[in-house]
Each structure stands twice: as structure tokens, then as C-alpha cells.
Write a structure and sequence with these properties.
Elements: E1 16-20, H1 37-51, E2 55-59, H2 76-86, E3 90-92, H3 99-108, E4 114-116, H4 131-138, E5 143-146, E6 168-170, H5 172-186, E7 192-196, H6 205-211, E8 217-220, H7 225-231, H8 245-264, E9 268-270, E10 274-280, E11 286-293, E12 302-306, H9 308-320, E13 323-327, H10 340-351, E14 355-358, H11 361-369, E15 378-379, H12 383-390, H13 396-399
Helix pairs in contact: 1-2, 7-8, 9-10
Length: 404
């Protein structure tokens, strides 16, 4: 249930509307947009505003320029891509705030026109939620719309600060993201399976804690699975783990406790039973690749993918589920030698009859690589935001919006 006002709940006809979008998209070496998914996801909100004869002022971040102007993080290529997708001109400014921008918006823009300001993170106050900067942004418009779910977990000037100075509502994408992710926390169809991979246990601790009260089964794979194998007392060789010894000990302790809670709560907690491992030589090449049982990783080998017996366990669990959430690849999928596990897992989830939700940047990259994006019920546009929501946290960018 989404309890915040949206663009459908207020009068927008003819208004100047400041829209926070998430156009933090990958660019290629020629600074062209490599993946336009996030831009496409904003189109329903933008088209709605166009139909309401709004003057649309777009703000977004791109990359991490750390409060400085960095040419490779300019939004110019993004504006060009948006023009192609929306089928109309987008005027791009090379500044965030200026008298020229204010004059253009007030005196030259026509209803239905779109302008895009420069990367908000070029301003040092953005990530500090500087209210003076937020007030300057707010001075450009009559209404603020947040449609940047991927940045909703950040308390920044463009996500939280501006909402102090303008009526603030959600766009269609933000609303959909919250509704889809909240549905699996509040009322999932059962059995509910969480599939968790990726490199670091640290990124998933709070989600796992929350899921241990909600799910029926958990699959653990990828780099983070080696911490769980260590917690079982297995040798993990040179497989990925936290470098700081104190942090690593804490993560192993958490993994052991999580598996004990799962057993107590009758949750089927599946860890790998066999793995694809290899040695990394002096030239950083992976050599002598072989499959071993999970409790027999040689001390000088490193895990790179899941083995066939493990994947069979995963697929059997996936086939029983009615709701599946997936975050994190289960192997070094960027390398074709070790893509099998993530490809098999993703295909099994995509072909299941369950409601399927995926989130996280690496997960989305895997879905794109294997052509599976359109086969999921919902693919979240926000990695960090989706995980924080699933941890049970209140996201500051959503809390700042008007209540219904």
C-alpha cells in the first residue's frame, strides 16, 4: 500500500514541475548511453505531465563527481537519448542554477516543454542536503515530483530538501516500485523464496535478518556464500571474503546465527554443495578450473561459480515457489567461463510460474546479458533503495512526500 500523494492526486494543469528522475545510466567510451532502461521507466510520468500542459524541469545525478564539474558525468548524452525516446525536444542546460535558466523557464518555455538541468551532484551541497541549494532548485517550479526510486534512499537536496519548499508528490515509477516491493513483505503468495547472491555478506545482513521472519526458503550463492560455508566449518581457500579480520569474524558469526534461526523457523536455507573453482596465477589468469564439493575447496583455489549439484538444488526450490525475490549473481558471470550458474538460476526464475522480482545493479546486468529482463514480473530500478526497503527501513526520499 502506497500512502503518499502522487501526480494523480493534485492539480498540475499548466504548472511548472520540478521532476527528480534517476538517469544514472551507463555510458560507453564515446559517452553515449549504453542502457536506456532507466530513461524509459520515466516516460509514463513525463507523458502524463506533458498531457497536463506542464513545464517540465528535469534534475538527476550521474556518477559520483563529488561536488565538482566533471565533463564525463555531464547529462548531455542523456538529454539526447531522452529526445529520441519521448519524441520531442529536450533543452539541456550546462548549469544547475542560473539567471538564464530562470528566465527561460518563466518567459520562454511553453506548456509541455522539457528542460534538463546539469548533474545535481556537480553542486557540493547536493549530497549534504544543503537547504540553500534545495531552495534554489525549488524556486524554479510550483510542484516537486520524485520519480527517482533509485535515489530515494539518499537524503540529498534534490530528494529531500526540495520537498520542504514545494508540494511534493510521487511519480508513477516511484509508486510502482514501492508497491511491488512492499507486496512481498506484507502479503507474499507462498512459498516465498529469497535468492541472495553477490559478493558481500555485509550488504545483505539486514535484508537476511528481515527475511528470516518472512520467507519460506533462502538460496545463498555467489561470493557471499563462502562466508556461510566458512560458518559451517569448511575450508574456502582464497574465495572472496571480507579482508578485515574482525569484520570477517563478525560476518561468519552472523552467517552461523542466520542458519540456526532459519532451522528454528523451519526455513529451508540452501548453501552450495559443489563449486567451480580455479587458481589465479601470477599474471592474474584463472587456471586449472575444476568442480569440487563445497567442503573440499583446496587452500590455494578460489570459487568462481556454482556446480551442477548446487544448481539442481536451486532449480528444484525455484520450481516450488509462488513468490521469488532475486538479488545478486551466483558466480563471476561477466566471464563466459563462469556464467553458467547465474544464467541457469536466472532462466529458472524467469520460466517459473511465480511472481518474480529482481533488484540490484549486477542482477540487472545479468538479466540484460541473458535476455531475461522482460520475463520477470518486476525488475527494480534501484539497487540500494530496493534493499533498504526490504530491510524494513523508511526511505527519506519517500518520507519527504505529502501523505495521502
Amino acid at each position: 500500500m502506497f500512502n503518499k500523494k502522487t501526480i494523480e492526486d493534485i492539480d498540475l494543469i499548466g504548472k511548472k514541475v520540478l521532476v527528480r528522475v534517476d538517469y544514472n545510466v551507463p555510458l560507453d567510451e564515446n559517452l553515449n548511453v549504453k542502457d536506456d532502461s532507466r530513461i524509459r521507466l520515466s516516460l509514463p510520468t513525463l507523458n502524463y505531465l506533458i498531457n497536463k500542459n506542464c513545464k517540465i524541469i528535469l534534475i538527476s545525478h550521474l556518477g559520483r563527481p563529488k561536488g565538482e564539474v566533471v565533463d564525463k558525468y555531464r547529462l548531455t548524452p542523456v538529454a539526447k537519448e531522452l529526445e529520441k525516446l519521448i519524441g520531442k525536444s529536450v533543452k539541456k542546460f550546462d548549469e544547475i542554477i542560473s539567471d538564464e535558466i530562470k528566465d527561460y523557464i518563466n518567459n520562454k518555455m511553453k506548456p509541455g516543454d522539457i528542460v534538463m538541468l546539469e548533474n545535481v551532484r556537480f553542486h557540493p551541497g547536493e549530497t549534504k542536503n544543503d537547504l540553500n541549494f534545495a531552495k534554489e532548485l525549488a524556486s524554479l517550479a510550483d510542484v516537486y515530483v520524485n520519480d527517482a526510486f533509485g535515489a530515494a534512499h539518499r537524503a540529498h537536496s534534490s530528494t529531500v530538501g526540495v520537498a520542504k519548499f514545494l508540494p511534493a508528490v510521487a511519480g508513477f515509477l516511484l509508486k510502482k516500485e514501492v508497491e511491488e516491493l512492499s507486496s512481498i513483505l506484507e502479503n507474499p503468495e507462498r512459498p516465498f523464496l529469497a535468492v541472495l547472491g553477490g559478493a558481500k555478506v555485509a550488504d545483505k545482513i539486514m535484508v537476511i535478518k528481515n527475511f528470516l521472519n518472512i520467507v519460506d526458503s533462502i538460496i545463498v550463492g555467489g561470493g557471499m556464500s563462502y562466508t556461510f560455508l566458512k560458518a559451517k566449518g569448511y575450508e574456502i581457500g582464497k574465495s572472496i571474503h571480507a579482508e578485515d579480520s574482525v569484520e570477517y569474524e563478525e560476518q561468519v558469526k552472523f552467517a552461523k546465527e542466520a542458519m540456526e534461526i532459519a532451522e528454528k523457523n523451519n526455513i529451508n536455507f540452501i548453501t552450495p554443495v559443489d563449486l567451480v573453482v580455479g587458481k589465479v596465477d601470477a599474471e592474474n589468469n584463472i587456471v586449472d578450473v575444476k568442480v569440487v564439493d563445497a567442503d573440499k575447496i583446496p587452500a590455494d583455489y578460489e570459487g568462481f561459480d556454482m556446480g551442477e549439484k548446487t544448481l539442481a538444488l536451486y532449480e528444484a526450490e525455484i520450481s516450488k515457489a509462488k513468490t521469488i525475490f532475486w538479488n545478486g549473481p551466483v558466480g563471476f558471470f561477466e566471464n563466459p567461463r563462469f556464467e553458467n550458474g547465474t544464467k541457469r538460476l536466472g532462466t529458472a526464475i524467469a520460466n517459473s510460474k511465480a511472481k518474480t522480482i529482481a533488484g540490484g545493479g549486477d542482477t540487472l546486468a545479468a538479466l540484460r546479458k541473458f535476455g531475461l529482463t522482460d520475463k520477470f514480473s518486476h525488475v527494480s530500478s534501484g539497487g540500494g533503495a530496493s534493499m533498504e526497503l526490504l530491510e524494513g527501513k523508511t526511505l527519506p526520499g519517500i518520507a519527504a512526500l505529502l501523505d495521502k
